[in-house]
Fold these 2 entries.
Entry 1:
Amino acid sequence: MTGKSAVPRTILLLAPLLLFLGLAYVVPFLGVIRWSVTLPEPGLGQYRAVLTDPLVQSVFIRTLRICLIVTAAALVMAYAIAYVWVRGTPTQRMLAEFCILVPFWISVLTRAFGWLALLSNRGLINTWLQAAGIISEPLALARNEFGVIVGMTHFLIPFAVFPIASAMRSIDERVLLAARGMGASRSRIFWSVFVPLTYGGLIGAALIVFVFALGFFVTPAILGGGRSVMVAELVYLRIFQSPDWGLGAAISVVLVIFIGILLALMRRFIKPAHLVG
Amino acid sequence: MQSSRPGPILLIIATAVALFLLMPLLAVVPVSFTPQRFLSMPNGVLSLRHYQALIDNPAWGQSVLLSLRIGILSSAIATVLATMFGLGIWMFQPRFSALLIGFVLLPLIVPPVVSAMTLYFLMTTLSAFNSFIGYDTWIGVALAHAVMITPFAVVLILVALFQVDRRIDLAARGLGANLTTRAFRIIIPNIKFGIATAALLSFVLSWEEIGVTLFITSVNAITLPRLMWMGLRDNIDPAIAAISVLLIIVTAVILALRIFIERRGASETK
């Protein structure tokens, strides 16, 4: 639609970012791939290790299990609060928005620390339960898989809310009125009309949460306390604690391939605008 | 409309979720006043010693200044690059728009730990050639942050652009406005609130960034999150609670500012 003279100008506007990311991101990623096949020795040994090493296997399985639980929990919780955010009274909406956006904007470290303050042995919950005489020994709530799941779910709920709320907003009010006019009960309208109309948003949300959870690193490292290591933390440990850059690089490459396949399969459910509050 | 207001069961669940979301933020407050040296609840006695520690230990102040500097530089880089890119996509609608947008969103989609490793490779490579931009330097951190936050800025600016009425631009073109005039006098004024939000979110994301920072810094470029991380790993320092309370307050203020900007933006464009 634009004349030929526009082509160089297009490039002038687009090139800086493309060049920046090309040089600062794509090229170094090629370097990571090279690490994965050259360290400590040339060959595909590290990939064989990723696929066969029992330690790596158990970390992958734990990661998948945690990601699935977190995704399910985050979706259910996000759905409830998104519903109030979209269809509540004006006051309810404002409160819901506040509760969604404030945690979203607060640093992941502060949020993980908040969970430690609640869940650790001398934290709020154990202190109260002991003071009330309900338990004598503190419950193990943090520094284990439970703490990781709670902290990650908390972190990811806002990311699930945005696509779900967007799907809810685009529902045609007349469809719901029609269902009511035909005599459907409130719960029937909700389960048979409303929820099915938001499947697109739910799948998009599930995908975002799952992909983010998979590569998540800070919350598990703090709330897992080194006991329930997930795959991203394993990469970190392989780089900085027991230097095995090749294995860290190979795991990274495998992760990228896995996510690439997942997103390619599900690409029609992804809307980039959903990623920011 | 009335029929689809949330019912009592849903409201109860949503309230529980809201409490779940706010709980960890509230829990930080009592811990920050504990008189003990370790993470604990204040037992009748409140103490400001951990706030005092933030002032007494110069490391905190230095890391705040460093994070501010890095945040401003990386947000500036991200906002400028994302605005240019957004304008290019919107004004010329190039043939492979979707592919190009997908490409620039890569750092957002790729797992953070992989990005961290990639940027670690970049920074150690750069360090071999110079001592200003590279591993454990503040400019290096700012560049790495720019890579990570640019996708967010691109999304916000594209969302703002797609709300602009194309006919305004067509009219300007019809009246003979050249490219620079169209960009600076027509389009940018129409998306200035989108650009401001992008700059703000970019800054906040850089200010909070830890995943990548952890990989590319060691002893010199200690940003605020990096310093917090060091106090969080083994023996938890309650000074983290004090700094967290302050951060929560700052975030609430910034959020209010953003809502204010958006309200004004909405009332001015209508």
Entry 2:
Amino acid sequence: MSFISVKHIKKTFKVPIKSSGILGTLKSFFKRKYRYIKAIDDISFSIKKGEIVGYIGPNGAGKSTTIKILSGILVPDSGDVKVAGLIPSKDRKEYVKQIGVVFGQRSQLWWDIPAIDSFNLLKEIYKIPKEQYESTLNELTKLLNLEEILNVPVRNLSLGNRMKCEIAASLLHSPKILFLDEPTIGLDAVSKKVVREFIKKINKQKNVTIILTTHDMADIEALAKRIILIGKGKLLYDGSLSKLKKNYDYLRKIKVVTKDTIDIKKDCIVKIEKLDDGIEFTIDIRKIEINEFIKLISSKISIIDIDIDSENIDELIVKLYEDFKI
Amino acid sequence: MKSYLCYFKLKFITGLQYRAAAIAGVLTQFFFGFVYISVYVAFYESGSSNLPMELSDLISYVWLSQSFFSLIYLWYKDKEILNMIKNGNIAYELLRPQDLYLMWCHKILGERLSSVILRFLPVILISVILPKPYNLDLSTSLPVLILFILSMILSSILMTLLVVFYHVICLFTLDEKGIVNIFMVISDVLSGLGIPVPFFPKFMQNISNILPFRYISDFPFRLYVGNITINEGLISILVQITWIILLFTIGKLLTNKALKRAVIQGG
């Protein structure tokens, strides 16, 4: 039985087209034209309990819309959504007790008061029993290192610390599912690492199902074994990250430090670039093994130093987007 | 219920923190009280006849409306709610296991009560000890006092529902400017906060008797100063209750409708 099941959902937004300028504004005042944008176009997937799923796609692909539908805020035009046996948009009040949501670009904490006061408010809103609340809060405080920042007014917190509080706030009522919409946006490397490790921990310890949208591929690499790729509202790929890598991650950059020059042409070499102190080859490992390639060039030039780089996951995704024409 | 009261508490605590605002509020109330009273005194002394209210009643009316001002004025905008609608943070409100409409009612009533509690006592106390004819005359009978308290409770509920209603409209218009602003100003005028309803031309009196606005400030204060009889008062309280039921139903239905077609702004 799948924990989250999404079947053929569609959502179209009606967007008024406004012409610019005074005349245009006047015109659209009397006769308004609309454009229909298919934010989500027939998407289906299912997720098991305890999975971490990375939900990726370029800007405007429909990621946030999906999250909003899954969290019961938006109603899909057609299709079925069932999460933990409930229909989010119908059983909203009952359903939202079981989920936690973090929108990375928004804040759920009261700006002027310390986070702990917001937490206490959430305790009342979710009717969390006192003992349970205290133990959860203690745990979260320890895991996220919150002691010193809980009593500072939220407006005085750094973005990283605020995000930690946001995530803690969404977990106070011990949800079974956690939706993270760009949780690491704008964070520095250290905070990102803390957030990622924390997500991993709660997934393991509490078996919380996590759906994560992000543009930071390092998040996906660190967290999600399974990814769902969407573009222009359509589902493009649903499967493991490693499989995707196998299909797309075949280029290696080999930087050779040398004083010699080389003139080589082979179809396994995609690109040759001259650097100040050597040469950078980009090779296709489907056509030649690295071992073979090094043998080949070492027979022609003397190698002082060598550096092999696999492709950045960001570039991989760019290639993927290009492939799917999104 | 308890989970809604926490908004109330929070707004209350936040409101109480702004002491400087409260002092400034009291001073403003006095300033406007004196301006209104000076105008009325000049008006009465110029020898106009057939005036619908006695000067002393009118002056008490002005002081009462000034002391409860922050609870009864109608062009109130809750910045937090309006921003939430504009920038899409309303998404978080919808994630709570609560009713959005009731949540807003509690937020707004909490905010208004916290602001009136800091302001009304000083205005009443000082205006009572002012020299005649500028003073507030608090003497009244027990039945009137009881009716007044009841009507004030109902009027704060009515005020909350009206203000929430304007905010609910913003769910459709996305902005409080324009039509909502116009509504707010009209309702403020018709509520009798500037000029008491008996001074309106006849046709405007008829209009304001039907509409809910007058039952928020004009009615309870005129009841207190004795310009409205107890019998009339009882009927008006029934009108208050009717409007409360009506506005609550409309507000709730509109909210549900708005949320069905909700579009969350900004990604």
